[in-house]
Amino acid sequence: MKTNTAIRWISGLGLALSLAAAAQAVEVGGLKFDDTAKVAGKELKLNGAGVRVRIVVKVYAMALYLTEKKTTTAGVLDSAGPRRFTLGLLREVTGDELGQAFMAGITANTDKAERSKFVNQLAQFGEAFVSIPTARKGDVITVDWVPDTGTVMALNGKQIGEPLKDVGFYNAVLKIWLGDKPVDSTLKPELLGSKG
C-alpha cells in the first residue's frame, strides 16, 4: 500500500515539475512575462521582449505575442490571427503622458494619409489613456488585436475604452516600436527576437 502511495506521489511531483517547466517566463527589466498568452481562445507565443529606455530612465518592459514567430516588421504586421503586446510599467506615469508618447510614436511612423484613415480611432485611443489618471510602477497594460472585434486595451486586466475595429490601426500602433523610426532603436530587434 505504501509503495503505491509513494509511486503516485513521485509521479504527481514529476507532473507538477513538468507543468512548471512548460509555463516558463522570461524576465525583462525585473518583470516576468509568460512564454505564452491566450487571446481570443488562441495560444500566442512570445515573439520577443525588451525594455524601453528614455535617456537613462527605464520606462516599461514590453513583450510581443504572435501566433507564430516573426523576425521582420512586415512579418509581424502581416501576421494573421490574434496578437498582443504587453507593457509592464517600471515607473509611475500619467495616462496623459502615455497617450502623448503613443501619439508621437504613431505620428513619427505613419504618413498623413495613413493617419487620416484612423482619425476617429486615434481620438478614441487618446481618450482611453486620458481615463487612466496615473499608472503606477508594476501596472500592466495589454493591447490585443482580436479578429472580428478589434483593438482591445486593458489596464491590469480591466478593459479601457471601446474596441477599435481596423487592423490597420493596430499596425499603426505597433509601428511605434517596429516602424522605420522606432521610439527605442534597441527595443525593436528585441521584440523581433533577433537580439539576445
Structure description:
By secondary structure, the protein is an alpha+beta fold. The protein has one domain: Chalcone isomerase. It contains 7 helices and 11 strands. The longest helix has 21 residues, at 2-22. The model is unreliable at 1-22 (pLDDT under 50).
> Could you tell me the radius of gyration in angstroms?
19 Å
- Low-pLDDT segments, ≥5 res: 1-22
* SS strand fraction: 25-35%
Please tally the helical runs, counting DSSP H or I stretches of 4 or more residues: 7
Mean pLDDT: 87
Cα end-to-end separation: 51 Å
CATH architecture: 3-Layer(bba) Sandwich
Q: Just give the CATH class.
A: Alpha Beta
GO molecular function: intramolecular lyase activity
Protein name: Chalcone isomerase-like protein
InterPro entries: Chalcone_isomerase, Chalcone_isomerase_3-sand, Chalcone_isomerase_sf
Organism: Roseateles saccharophilus
Helix and strand arrangement:
Blueprint: H1 2-22, E1 25-28, E2 31-34, E3 36-39, E4 42-54, E5 57-66, H2 73-78, E6 83-89, E7 93-94, H3 95-109, H4 112-116, H5 119-130, E8 134-135, E9 140-146, E10 150-155, E11 158-164, H6 167-178, H7 187-191
Helix pairs in contact: 3-5, 3-6
Task: From the structure above, extract its key features.
196 residues; Chalcone isomerase; seven-stranded antiparallel beta sheet; two-stranded antiparallel ribbon; 7 helices; globular; Chalcone_isomerase; isomerase
